């Protein structure tokens, strides 16, 4: 893994809010955010790869470059990513536009790894990014996000709106500054009305009550 401090620092100087850190993530954080990913995870979408601190770790875990899509908005990092990961799909785009482009046929993605500085973004933008990413994540897949903050950087109302839950994977206290990684997954869907509890078609139902057997709600 090359020493990218200078190029990263210069990118931060020109756009501090977008880059969100003065140095690339260290080995401990890269290890943590990719910990649950293996070669069999399948297609992986990486958001905000920067100089590739997490990308290198994914390759070490056996992920094939052909399974990687890297979405980066900083023109300063584009050439470098294309040279370093020639087998990966490298896209120069705003991650908030994920849903506007058809990046995949269907939803095959096993994991999203995000280095995006979500705390510097509006709630609206966070909804677009996380919602767009989940439109490509297959059932059982996960979105991994790191933060320098003390809690999950995706606010609770956004999780509720998107039907997601967040769980702390762990903290990388050796990273400078210390960071934490959260795993976002879909909430399990529970059937509200089943079998003999379901009203038959002739039963009057109070306004606002669910009548369909197929109605589901997030837990
Ligand atoms: C904190 S750096 C993380 C870089 C790298 N993942 C690491 O951990 O060293 C954030 C990265 O997200 C990129 N970024 C910021 N906003 C973005 C957006 N809307 N879409 C795509 N990339 C974005 C920045 O250019 C930068 O490369």
From TrEMBL:
A Gene Ontology biological process term: methylation
GO terms for MF: methyltransferase activity
Alphabetical keyword list: Methyltransferase, Transferase
Protein name: SAM-dependent methyltransferase
Start and end residues of each stretch annotated as Disordered: 197-219
Cited SUPFAM superfamilies: S-adenosyl-L-methionine-dependent methyltransferases
Compositionally biased tracts (Polar residues): 209-219
Ranges that cross the membrane: none
Domain of life: Bacteria
Database matches in InterPro entries: SAM-dependent_MTases_sf
